[in-house]
Amino acid sequence: KTAKCESKLIGHSDVKSCKVVQTLEKKWGLWIWNEVDGASWTKTVDTRAISLVNTKSGLDSGTYRLKSVFTLTNSSGKSETITIYSEEETI
Description:
Elements: E1 3-10, E2 15-27, E3 33-45, E4 49-56, E5 63-74, E6 79-85, E7 89-90
Antiparallel strand pairs: 1-4, 2-3, 2-5, 5-6, 5-7
């Protein structure tokens, strides 16, 4: 019962830095998702591409998804945030 959490992004050529906050979430109700304890990671790089891979073991049965929040910054200092959710996986 181990989740492999993988987030990747390649930005436009104007992008100078990227940050990703990766969070594994567990479903608790129809529309309720809670962060799994010890399953949030952050990475920042000074390039236009970013990749972050982590694993979380010892998961209970249930339905999970990965939330990846990317923040892209250009040379002028302007930022854009993109949130991506993975497909749901049940174990």
